[in-house]
Amino acid sequence: MAFGTQGHAAFATFLILCPTSFFLGILFSLFPYDYPLLWTSAPCPSEAFTSLEAHYILLHNSPLIIQRILHIVVGVGLLGFFIKLYRPTESNKLFDGASLMMYMCGVIIYIANIIRGMRIIASGKYEDEVVAKEVEVGGGGADTPLGRDDSLRVMAASNTILALVLMGVLVLQAGQWYAERKDIQELEKTREDETSNSGGRSTDGSRHKSPTGSKKRN
Fold first, then answer.
1. Distance from C-alpha of 113 to C-alpha of 39, rounded to nearest angstrom
2. What DSSP state is assigned to residue 89?
């Protein structure tokens, strides 16, 4: 456990679960926008792309305080992992280490796909952004640049991947809680068995000593 106490570990787990659940709530609020783009076989109406584009433009142009709050929440989650991984046990190395890797994958998806995608959507220059990137890396520009619809589908897919990664963090934390709970139950059962065995041995010892004591009295 972190710092060798269950209290610190519980607080650190709280710092991990709250930001993870917070981000899942944000992604769930985007699900009505993403559903027509990815999760239905019916043709996607143009209004769905327009509404999603307007929503991302609103998010991108939101006040800096909102963006700072979001990044602070990301930092709170990382702080929880650092607390739990300070002087880690085997459980921390296994579950918290894997959870941290998944959490960092989510951060990378957010930086590489979502932030960059919102900047492209806000600028409205989908083809120009992709072609400029191809020229920068030395590409020949043989591939067709992504248009507005495909760019929005990529954003929706990134949201889905990010949600799966964050749910993986919750599953790992729940698995750690269950494993530690079973270990505590087995330890308590072992102690009870040892206590009962030691009590039985002391009773048998007193029974064996009683005839000797009676002989000495005679």
1. 20
2. -
